[in-house]
Amino acid sequence: MKAAIVYSHKANKTSKAANLIKQATGMESLKDIDIEEADLSTIKGFDLLILGSPTWFDGELAVYWDELVPEIEDTDFSKSKIAIFGNGDQLGYPENFGDAVGLLAEVFENSGATMIGKTSTKEYTFESSKALEGEYFKGLILDFENQHKMNKARVESWVKSLLEQLKD
Question: What does pTM read for this prediction?
């Protein structure tokens, strides 16, 4: 399986999350891609893409992802499985908690990708999120500000779930 983890290497908390994910997968062949130096050709052609983004301001996708969205929307990702992780602050921004996860998911869903890695909303307190799908988030959302002690366990559980879904 050709797999990559894609995130901004300059985004401190996203990088911390990515490092936890890389350790948990145990996949030596997992390609590490800095989205700020990538273009569409860099991320196309993988069987599995693990994508990371913090939620900026009032529920916005990070600009380095925004720049690629038009190209992604015009590309067929139907042969790719996509898992998304992100960061949010459920107390500081409860009305758009982890929105970037939902925004990225929507772009890739519309491009035909198979989304994997939903997580439960239990143990989170927030008002709304574009990442919501029923009682699940469309990916993993970590809260470094308020629940940082839960990050490692959440990552390990999420990665275990991803690896199980990849077997199907």
Answer: 0.96
